[in-house]
Specification:
The protein is built from 10 helices and 8 strands. The protein has 206 residues and is of the alpha/beta class. The strands form 2 sheets. The chain has a 6-stranded parallel beta sheet with strand order 2-1-3-6-7-8, with helices on both faces. A two-stranded antiparallel sheet has the order 4-5. Strand 6, helix 4 and strand 7 form a beta-alpha-beta unit. Helix 7 packs across helix 9 and helix 8 packs across helix 9. The protein starts with a strand and ends with a helix.
Length: 206
């Protein structure tokens, strides 16, 4: 049984979705809140999955994700919202969300997303995935102040390839090195830049 909690400030939308989920045999809805003030109750319940609207008025859903992951590192967070802005998407994902869906996604897709993240997979709405791909496929702009990070020439080269959206395999082919070597360089790049993902690099340097 997959335990689920909600943070959603649109009661009619939330009620429709919860009614649908309650008809499934493998989902149990433990709690539904409307703001980040409900986080302590959710943390006490220790759900497997939390579904959260990123648009909660003046409250920061990113802060909510951070608090949840700090208290319940194994709980999977799915963002379910109407917002498609790049900054919102990257902020939610780099803070710890493993799913990003839109409210116009059908309930069956949301159900499948819950099951997928529970199994350790990531789930992204097709429109959001295209925005992410388009973002990484933009021409790379000039990167400023890299001297302060003491990157080697090879690390700079790989960083540019990362920002251009190339896969590790493609980077290895471009640089005529093994994928293990690429992985080693990327770990050093992340350490020197104090980041944990491509999304953080993009947010900092684009």
């Amino acid at each position: 049984m997959i335990s689920v909690c909600f943070i959603e400030d649109n009661p009619s939308y939330k009620d429709v979705l919860i009614t649908f989920l309650k008809k499934t045999e493998d989902i149990t809805v433990l709690f539904s809140g409307s703001s980040l003030a409900d986080l302590p109750e959710i943390i006490k319940l220790m759900p497997a999955v939390v579904i959260m609207n990123v648009n909660l008025g003046k409250e920061s859903a990113t802060e909510g994700i951070y608090q949840l992951k700090e208290a319940l590192p194994d709980t999977k967070v799915i963002i379910l919202t109407e917002l498609k802005e790049e900054e919102t998407i990257f902020s939610a994902l780099k803070t710890g969300a493993v799913g990003y869906l839109l409210k116009n996604d059908p309930p069956q897709k949301i159900l499948e997303a819950i099951r997928s993240v529970y199994k350790g997979e990531g789930v992204i709405n097709g429109q959001i995935a295209r925005k992410i791909l388009a973002y990484f496929q933009q021409p790379v702009k000039n990167i400023l102040n890299l001297d302060a990070y003491h990157l080697t020439s090879r690390e700079r080269e790989i960083l540019l390839h990362l920002m251009a959206g190339l896969s590790y395999k493609e980077i290895a082919a471009r640089c005529f090195v093994s994928i293990d070597t690429v992985n080693s360089h990327i770990r050093k790049i992340y350490s020197k830049l104090n980041v944990r993902s491509r999304a953080e690099i993009a947010a900092r340097f684009r």
